[in-house]
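Please think about what follows:
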Amino acid sequence: MLSGLASAWSWLHDFIAYARLQTRIATATETWLDRISGDFFGTRLLRATLEPDNAFRARILRELTRARATRPAIVEALVDLTGRAPEIFEPARAADTGGYGLAMGYGLAGAWGSLSLPCQFFVTAYRPLGTGIALFPGWGYGAWSSGASAYADLSMIAVQVTDADIYAAIADVLPAAVTAWSRIAD
């Protein structure tokens, strides 16, 4: 009889310790991290397929403290997502367009500027380099005969970044009432 009571209290103690861990981002695990992400970001920040807790936790913390509404914030968001820096051109910014009497000279800095495009800029984002399974060149590229082959599963595939993910990353850091004309290149 005492053993039954002791095992119930032991289970309750373990459950309380587990529940206490789930109340903080730094110690939460499993589906609790998904719930925390849902509370802060809704469906904007979801766990990638087979993404481990520590990687997802790092993405949550990075999004919580991400700078927003600045040019460097857009660059940071795209570098975090794709690993490549975008090109940003603001037609009303002399540092991007150049001009008469400036140190960079006329026509040396970028493209034609215009003050008729207020609160607008152009972003050229780049898709990430290298997708698929690292260290394996693939069928038809000598992998089969060179010994650099293996049976693969989903956990080996690098996370795929879609064009929609890139557009969403730009939109997430934009200030209100600003237009970012975006294009995506390889």
User: Anything to note?
Assistant: The beta strands are 87-89, 120-126, 179-185. The chain has a mean pLDDT of 84. The longest strand covers residues 120-126. The helical segments are 2-21, 31-41, 53-64, 71-82, 94-97, 143-146, 163-173.
